[in-house]
Amino acid sequence: MTEKDAGAPGLARLAGLIADETRAACLLALLDGRAWTAGELARHAGVAASTLSEHLGKLVAGGLLAEERQGRHRYVRLADDRVAQLVEDLAAQVAPDAAARRPRTLRASSAGSAMARGRTCYDHLAGRLGIAVTDALTGRGLLRQDTGFALTDAGLGWFDAAGIPLRPTGRRPLARACLDWTERRPHLAGVAGAALCRHALDAGWCVRIGSERAVKVTSAGERALSRLLDIGAAALR
Amino acid sequence: MTEKDAGAPGLARLAGLIADETRAACLLALLDGRAWTAGELARHAGVAASTLSEHLGKLVAGGLLAEERQGRHRYVRLADDRVAQLVEDLAAQVAPDAAARRPRTLRASSAGSAMARGRTCYDHLAGRLGIAVTDALTGRGLLRQDTGFALTDAGLGWFDAAGIPLRPTGRRPLARACLDWTERRPHLAGVAGAALCRHALDAGWCVRIGSERAVKVTSAGERALSRLLDIGAAALR
DNA sequence: CGCACGGTTCGGCGGGCACCGAAGTGTGGC
DNA sequence: GCCACACTTCGGTGCCCGCCGAACCGTGCG
C-alpha cells in the first residue's frame, strides 16, 4: 500500500457525510451563512426531529458544522469558510443537471427568480447582483480575472476609498473565485467578498428578503453601486 | 420546498459516488492524471475485478471518470480538471487527520518522502518541488498571492521567455491555487501549472519515478530551475 | 410547581449497496 | 480455431445506515 492509500478512508468518510440527502439539504440550507436550530432544519428537510438530531451529531463530529447551545436550542452553522467553499464547489459540479430542470410551480419559480437576482452565498454576494459587482470590478481594472483571480493595487485602493477595510485573516485568501450556480460564472469571494457583502448589508445597500438567502437591492444601494462602480440598474434586474 | 432543495439529491448523489472507500482509492490513484486499466485499479484497491467493474460503471455514469476502450482493456481517467480539483479539495479537507498520522513501515515512509519531495497532482507539480516553484514565482513578482492568486504581466512575460506557451482554454483559469496536502500550502495549478509541468517533463527537468506519481528533479532540471527562477538545490531536498 | 416544548436516546425495521464467485462475452495471440 | 486473458453480468449474502415512534432529559414559561 502506498502512502496515498491512507487518504482513501478519510476521503470516503468525508464524502459519506455529504452523501445523505437529508444531510445534503441541511448543508445547502446552511450555505446562507447563518445559524439554524435543529428544529428548523428538521422541518426544512422533512424528517423527524430524532432523525435530524443524529445527522447533526455526525456533521458536528465530522467537523463540517459548528454548534452553539443556547437554552433549550441547538444552533448549528457551517464550521468555516473552507466547508462552505467545499459544499459550494460540489453543488456547482452538480449544477449542470439542475440548470436543465425548470422550476415547476409558480411559487418556486418566483422564489427562484428572487434568488437568481441576488442572494448571499455563505458570507458574500451571489446571483446576478454578485456577478454585476464582480464584472464591474473587473471592467474597471480593480480585479484581475484574465491571469487568475486577484485584486489589483487599484482594487485595494478602491476598497480603502469606499471605507471597506480588508483585514487579512490567517490563511484565507483576500480574493477568491466562487462559481455561481445560477449564473455559471465566477464571482468575488474570500475576505474581500465577505467584507463587501457585510458592508452592503450594514450600509443598507441591500436587505434580506424574509428569512431566505435572497437579498434585494435598495434604492440607496442602486445609487451607491452606480456611483462607486458605475453599475446600471438594468444589470440588477 | 424552495428552489435550492432541488440541489440536495444531486449533491448527495455526487458525494455518494466518492463516499465508498474503494471508489475513493480509485479517484486518489487517478489523481496522477494518467489513465489506468480496470485491472490495475482492482489490484490497487484490493477488490475483485467484478466489484471494481461495477464501481467504474458508476463513476463513469456519474461523470467523474472518462473511459477509453482499447482492445480488451478499459482505460479510465478523471473526466476533467474540475473533477481533479474537487477530489483534491476534498482530500485537502481531510489532510489534517492524515498529517497527524505518521507512516508506519519504512517502505511507506520512503515512498512517502519521495512523494513529499516532488510529485504530480493531476497535471501540475506538487510537493516541495511545486511549492519551491510557486514560491520562486511569487518572490520574483511573477505570481501574485497577496491579493488572490494570479500571474502578473511580468509573469506572462516569463512564461513566454521560457518558451512555455500558455494557450487559454475555455473556462479553465490561467492560474489557480491548489492546496498541497503534504506541505499545507498553495501551489500553482490551472493552465499555467499544467503547461509548466508538461514542459518540465518534456524538457527533462524532472522524470517520473517508476510508475508512481512521484517525480525526481534531474541535474539538468536543477540547472534550469536555478537559471530561470534562482531556485537553490537545497529547496528541492 | 407543573406543563409545554426542544432536543436526545433507544429499539426495531427496512432498504440499499458493496462484496464475492461463477458464468458469460469479446479481444488478441499462438 | 483454440486458448488465455480482460472485463462484465448475475445471484446471493451480509452489513450498514437512515428512518420512525416512544420514552427520556432538560429548559423556560405560566
Descriptive tags:
alpha+beta; homodimer; 2 domains; 11 strands; Arc Repressor Mutant, subunit A; 17% strand; 237 residues; DNA-binding
Could you explain the architecture of this structure?
The structure is a homodimer of 237-residue chains. Chain A has 237 residues and is α+β, with helices and mostly antiparallel strands. The first copy, chain A, folds into two domains: 3-79, Orthogonal Bundle (Arc Repressor Mutant, subunit A); 102-236, no CATH class. Chain A has helices at residues 7-18, 21-30, 38-45, 49-61, 81-100, 106-117, 127-139, 153-161, 190-202, 219-229; strands at residues 36-37, 65-70, 73-78, 119-121, 124-126, 143-144, 148-151, 176-179, 186-189, 206-208, 215-217. In chain A, the strands form five sheets. Chain A has a three-stranded antiparallel sheet with strand order 1-3-2. In chain A, strands 4-5 form a two-stranded antiparallel ribbon. A two-stranded antiparallel ribbon of chain A has the order 6-7. In chain A, a hairpin with a 2-residue loop joins strand 4 and strand 5 (124-126). The longest helix of chain A is centred in the middle third of the chain and has 20 residues, at 81-100. Chain A is globular, with a radius of gyration of 19 Å. Strand 7 of chain A pairs antiparallel with strand 7 of chain B, so a sheet runs across the interface. Chain B binds a DNA duplex (30 and 30 nucleotides) through residues 20-22, 37-39, 42, 47-57, 71-74.
Query: What are the low-pLDDT stretches of chain A, counting only 5+ consecutive residues below 50?
Result: none
Q: How is the largest sheet of chain A built, in terms of strand order?
A: 1-3-2
Shape of chain A: globular
* Structural domain count of chain A: 2
Strand content of chain A: 15-25%
Instruction: List the chains of the largest interface with their residue counts.
Output: A-B, 67 and 67 residues
Please identify the structural class of chain A as seen in this structure.
Answer: alpha+beta
Q: Would you list the SSEs of chain A in sequence order as H and E?
A: HHEHHEEHHEEHEEHEEHEEH
User: Termini of chain A, distance in Å?
Assistant: 56 Å
Count the E strands of chain A. 11
User: Can you count the helices of chain A?
Assistant: 10
Oligomeric state as shown: homodimer
How much helicity do the residues of chain A have?
A: 40-55%
